[in-house]
Amino acid sequence: MSEKLHGVETIDPEYQKLNQMTLAGWLDYHQREVVFDKVSWMGIPTLKNVMDLWVYQEILFTLQPDLVIEMGSFKGGSALYLAQLLDQFGHGELISVDLDHSQFMAKHARITTLTGSTQDRAVISQLKELAAGKSVMIIHDADHSQKMVLADLITYADLVTKDSYFIVEDGVVDLFAKDTLLGATMNGPGPLPAIREFLTKDKRFVIDRSCERYLLTYNPCGYLKKIA
Ligand SMILES: C[S@@+](CC[C@H](N)C(=O)[O-])C[C@H]1O[C@@H](n2cnc3c(N)ncnc32)[C@H](O)[C@@H]1O
């Protein structure tokens, strides 16, 4: 005999079980089983919740910035994704910063890599120079510790142009207790307290919660829109 779930006849117990999953359960599952080795863009590993990538597409289409700065390249899946979106608009370039680009696989005319820490003086001055006079959006996916996220927010906030975004990724780790998989991802506090502290100092930015409407995000409170 089939059972009813939400008033709908269903015969598959596996889907009945999945339909009971909470958002927290999904995030735990995604972190445990998906994000590190089962997400790719055009064959290149991509450390993202794809629901967030869809939001990036929506933001980029609206803004069509001259420059996207990605902090944290890894193998280049997200860089290639962003560069190919820029192709669709026929406009924009991407600079992807990482401590090490030896694993970087993305090849695309719109991508420039910059090797070093986001807090290296040379990296800071090059990014400031490359961003001058351009409309700029930043995606932060580098060192997620509270201290480094706050330092990067403060260092680079001026580069983001009005109406554009400074997206701070992976604040999801701060929503989970330290004895859970996501909570244990970081030794100490991560992006969320950094965002909170930054917003008390820099009133030009607000959290755009509309970017979290799909609910399944790794970036809670991380879509920072520059309004002034
Ligand atoms: C989560 S991975 C980036 C994933 C990539 N954006 C993607 O979606 O596939 C984080 C990267 O940040 C880099 N990273 C860590 N600390 C950094 C720092 N201080 N400056 C620049 N890059 C850093 C690491 O080397 C690593 O490749």
Average pLDDT metric: 96
- Low-pLDDT residue spans: none
Classified by CATH, the class of the largest domain is: Alpha Beta
What coarse outline follows from CA principal-axis ratios?
globular
Examine the coordinates and then state which fold CATH places here, giving the name of the CATH topology of the largest domain.
Rossmann fold
Q: Could you give a short account of the major beta sheet?
A: 7 strands, mixed
Structural class: alpha/beta
H/I helix tally? 7
Number of domains: 2
Percentage of residues in helical conformation: 25-40%
CATH level-4 homologous superfamily of the largest domain: Vaccinia Virus protein VP39
Q: Report the bound ligands by name, code or SMILES.
A: S-adenosylmethionine
The strand count comes to 11
CATH architectural group of the largest domain = 3-Layer(aba) Sandwich
Taking Cα atoms only, what radius of gyration do you get, to the nearest Å?
19 Å
- Approximately how much beta-strand content do the residues carry? 15-25%
What is the subunit arrangement here? single chain
The H/E string reads: EEHHEEHEHEEHEHEHEE
**Major beta sheet, strand line-up:** 7-6-5-8-9-11-10
The span between the termini is 61 Å
